[in-house]
Automatic annotation (TrEMBL):
InterPro entries attached to this UniProt entry: 4Fe4S_Fe-S-bd
Official protein name in the record: 4Fe-4S ferredoxin-type domain-containing protein
Keywords: Membrane, Transmembrane, Transmembrane helix
A Pfam family this chain is assigned to: Fer4_5
Keyword Lipid metabolism in record: no
Organism: Faecalibacterium langellae
Transmembrane feature ranges: 9-29, 84-106, 146-167
Ranges where the 4Fe-4S ferredoxin-type domain occurs: 28-58, 155-188
Origin superkingdom: Bacteria
Coiled coil: none
Length: 191
């Protein structure tokens, strides 16, 4: 049997991260680790160590889908892993990320006020005010938390939906972080 490493349990961290967002939205900032670390490892290491070993979300899909049999384990539709879909989804995702940063800027500049809500699937606004006490930090920091947690939770839910419908880690076929790190690694290896 393969020896277990500390990083084999990062799926627990993924659960804790999302749970913390139900109590205090400022913990959403921790998600920046999942955003920056894969990019840094790809840029400086030229590898997908993050995807292969450090991604708690991917591990969570494996746990739920394979170990707990929450997945139908049907083949992932080919279009989901096609180049055009992966890059189109990445573009969409980055646009939404950019919009979230812009909303944060507007709050920082005093052009709009803090909205204590999250937006699921970029559409459905859900009140989330109990997770934040006004004035704890600068409004823009809180706004970023609400926006970033919205992105993280939306991508988790999308991942869970495709996990149930198809293979446990179908999300990885078009995950924006996976697409970006793969692109970076390809460029690095060409060098
Ligand atoms: S593709 Fe995305 S979800 Fe899958 S292991 Fe990589 S970063 Fe995690």
């Amino acid at each position: 049997m393969k020896a277990k490493h500390w990083y084999d349990y990062l799926w627990v961290y993924a659960i804790i991260y999302f749970a913390l967002g139900f109590f205090n939205i400022l913990f959403a900032w921790l998600g920046m680790i999942d955003f920056l670390l894969p990019l840094l490892l790809a840029i400086f290491g030229g590898n997908k160590f993050f995807c292969n070993h450090l991604c708690g979300r991917g591990q969570l899909f494996s746990k739920l889908g394979t170990d707990l049999k929450c997945s139908r384990c049907k083949p992932t539709p080919r279009w989901m892993s096609s180049k055009w879909f992966r890059y189109a989804f990445l573009l969409f995702f980055l646009t939404m990320f950019g919009n979230m940063v812009f909303q944060t800027y507007l709050v920082a500049a005093g052009a709009t006020s803090l909205r204590q809500a999250i937006k699921l699937f970029w559409t459905f606004r859900v009140p989330w005010g109990w997770t934040y006490t006004a004035g704890t930090v600068a409004d823009w920091m809180a706004q970023f938390s609400f926006g970033f947690y919205s992105l993280m939770l939306t991508s988790l839910l999308l991942g869970l939906i495709v996990m149930v419908l198809y293979m446990p880690r179908t999300w990885c076929a078009f995950c924006p972080m996976g697409t970006m790190t793969q692109g970076i690694c390809k460029l690095k290896n060409k060098e």
